[in-house]
Design brief:
Number of domains: 3
Largest sheet: 7 strands, mixed
CATH topology of the largest domain: Rossmann fold
Structural class: alpha/beta
Helix content: 25-40%
Number of strands: 20
Length: 456
Amino acid sequence: MSTVALVGRPNVGKSSLFNRLLKRSAALVDDRPGVTRDRHYGRLVVDDREGLLVDTGGFELASEPLSGPVNTQINLAVEECDLVVLVVDGLLGCHPRDLELAALIRRTGRPALVAVNKIDSPEKENLGADFYQLGLENIQPVSAAHGLGVEDLKTALYPYLEEALKSDDQAAEVPKVAVIGRPNAGKSSLINRLLGQNRLVVDSTPGTTRDAVDVTLEIEGRPYILVDTAGVRRKGRVSEKLEKLSVLRALKSLERCDLAILVIDAAQGLADQDAHIAGYAFERGRPVILAVNKWDTVTEKNRVRADFQKDLELKMAFLEKAPWLTVSALKGQGLQKLWPLVDEIMAQYRRRASTAEVNRIITAATEAHTPPQVGRGRLKFYYSTQASTGPPSFVLFTNHPEAVHFSYKRFLINRLKQAFGLTLVPVRLFFRSRHEDWAKSPPKSFKKLPGKKYRK
């Protein structure tokens, strides 16, 4: 797919323009410069054509923190793209660093245009004339904040895009894997190792990753999407607005992913915050793989392994024996076991059972363990079915849905997991009354007595 890269100095509005062109809040935006650090990709559609739009970090002087890795990401984006869009600040005028970037673009020989941002009224369009000194002829005045000139910019991008492909159902089947964890656990390093390239900015300073970045890769011909996320600290330690937004993005990524890889620092062990992060995934019904990273730094491996298993059973009992691997993102150790485990989990995550099978399992379970007494009668199950996948969710119709004890619910869930081989994924079970519709609109032969249920 053809690629369009947005480059420019910090705080000129690249991420805002990126969001405006994609028509969604895909990139994190803040007033302070240097928010974006990694290359961020999105699918750009203009009429009947499409391509990849790339947001990059701000081009900085070598003396600035993380300027080297960020500038490397910019150079890589320029080298791989079909069109470069140099975003500049129209209100501040042409900056020496704009000239430096324009010279870099001309040396690559890539087609380029200049998007003069922050032109929020027609009266300011003449400010774009100052940027002809960049040596790039196509000047497009725009306002990412208000949308002025964006349609003209899309028209300029149109020739560089490719004919849109027909929608493919297989795209929805690509597993989306969120890589989550505490700051500095090695999430970005792990993704870089899996990709075999420095796709994400890595630094020893906690909080290097700020936005949730999607990365596509293929393993033996099978596509996957990895989502790198910002580190999640305890709420009491999160005070800055930008970090709060980053944490919200990280947790939001769990809602659009199929499973999560929780990266844990082997040197620090399993912390309470790791259990909290795993709880976020569990609440959203996402299966979790625990990747104990930096295993190459552990000396007493047998002792640490035993201690980790005890902590796992104590702090993460809710995960029900989630699989965990010892890995090293630095040296690539243990990662060969990851993808077969992901495939096995995805097969369970999308498992669909027939209604006849579900009813047979529930019937056998109730015969083996009789439902408890409810008032003068007994709890009865009339009908059961699988409502959805991802995660597998089942619905049981009963005479007293509110009276099902959590222990009996757990018993039924375990029977379903055992029968259908759903050992690595969470299973949801809901109870419904077969007379729920009557409660909303009862038949004429029924009337409601004071303080009692409907009776004939």
